[in-house]
Every structure is written in C-alpha cells, then in structure tokens.
Amino acid sequence: xxxxxxxxxxxxxxxxxxxxxxxxxxxxxxxxxxxxxxxxxxxxxxxxxxxxxxxxxxxxxxxxxxxxxxxxxxxxxxxxxxxxxxxxxxxxxxxxxxxxxxxxxxxxxxxxxxxxxxxxxxxxxxxxxxxxxxxxxxxxxxxxxxxxxxxxxxxxxxxxxxxxxxxxxxx
Length: 171
Hints:
This protein is mainly beta. The chain has a domain at 43-159: Sandwich (Immunoglobulin-like). It has strands at residues 43-51, 59-68, 74-80, 84-95, 98-103, 108-110, 115-118, 123-130, 139-146, 150-159. Strands 1, 2, 3, 4, 5, 6, 7, 8, 9 and 10 form a 10-stranded mixed β-sheet that branches.
C-alpha cells in the first residue's frame, strides 16, 4: 500500500466534524475545516493527527477517533497515504513488561454503536518509508478502507513531535 507525498496547508485544522464514509468525495479540505454532512447513521472519523518528524525519519504514526453510528459492525482493513511508501494498521501493547508493536493483519474491528480511538501507545496507522519529513503546521491525507463503509479519505493535522491528542480533545 504505497503512494506519493502530498503535504501542505496550515493545520489549525478542525477535525471535530465527522467525515461520512459515503459522502467523502468533493469535500472542501481547506485549512479552516474539513466537514461533510453525514446521514443520521454514519461511520465518522474525527480528531485526526500525526506528529512532526525529524529529517530522515522513516516512520510516523497516524491517530484518530472512529465512531460507528451504524447498526452493523465494520472493520478497518487497510490504509494508504501519499506521504508514505507503506501504510499499515498497527497495535502497540505491553507483553511481558516490554512494549511491542505488531501489524493488525486482520484489521481493526469497529463494532456497531462503538467508538474506537487510534492513539499514541495503542492502535494507530503506521506510515513507513516516509517520502519527506512531516512538518508541524502542515497536513497529510490518509485513505482508510473499511470492509462495509468502503474508502474514507481524511486529513491529518501535523502536530508537535510530542503531541498526545488533537488540541481541544479533552474539552
């Protein structure tokens, strides 16, 4: 799963509005906000971000909150980004006192009516073979592939290298 880099735009990007899996095309992905009108039952992605990297760093993580307001279970089965040569779904977990990272070869379940957080130290999108450094204030795009909902392209704000969550997420 690889693509070319397309970074850009300032990232005072507000991602609190859901992006609907069925209505993602034709959105204005400008610097102010990326929004879509979602039907009452929708799979949505919010608070997407990644962290700035040092020049030459080959990897980065992508983080977001996925809410499945539909009545059917779904599964995140893949991702791709023009920012990376390889994009995978990963999990970090403690095993025998050691933090280990592994690819989620079967994808990540998104149960009906549930919200699943992809956060530092847990589930995340892994961007490998970065095409260029990720610069704070920019943004990248990632296309998520769901078993049922299909593809959803979302912008990820590039935040500070130590960012733990999207600004305002705890408010």
